[in-house]
Design goal:
By secondary structure, the protein is α/β, with parallel strands linked by helices. It is 40% helix and 15% strand. It contains seven helices and six strands; from the N terminus they run βαβααββααβαβα. The chain has helices at residues 17-29, 40-49, 58-68, 105-112, 119-129, 145-156, 175-190; strands spanning 6-11, 33-38, 76-79, 97-103, 133-138, 160-161. It has a six-stranded parallel beta sheet, sandwiched between helices. The radius of gyration is 16 Å and the shape is globular. It starts with 5 loop residues before the first strand and ends in a 13-residue tail after the last helix.
Length: 203
Amino acid sequence: MNEQRTVTLAMTGASGAQYGLRLLQCLLAADCRVYLLLSSAAEVVIRTETELDLPTDLDEQQIFLSQRYGAADDQLILFGRDDWFSPVASGSSSPASMVICPASGGTFSSIATGASNNLIERAADVALKERRQLIVVPRETPYSAVHLENMLKLTQLGAVVLPASPGFYLQPDSVEALVDFVVARILDQLNIEQDLMPRWGEE
């Protein structure tokens, strides 16, 4: 496992759990260590949008997801929403990259205003203040002026706003192909090799 590449992955309550779960699978397959943060709403969305019977206990969630995606020992670590002693809560030990996928409008708002009411918001605040990579993946539609203003503010603060808007020029033939389009773009931003789909102009 590549100990030098750790990525914080947060999933919040927007629709699109498939994006976050597929990204988790790809990060683990790329030998990254993943710090996973799930909001309460994200757990509800996962159970609603997928066939996964996600346990409610944090330790059981870690075992369940590790086994499902073939994670090595200590490669996937879950942290609770109020675990203020976790590495992601401090600029001295948080990873260089964080992805919020999917990111809800409420999460955008909290991060843009520096609310830090839970560990996901605090981890994003740390990424911004330490000038580290923060990628946020909204899947709302349509966007209100509030959403757009918060996206602009986060972009100005140094985050990358990467909407879950798959392209169709590769003529996708399945939902999985549409999900992979977005996940491939996230991996490209992270500079992690991926073979989910070719870049524009490649065979």
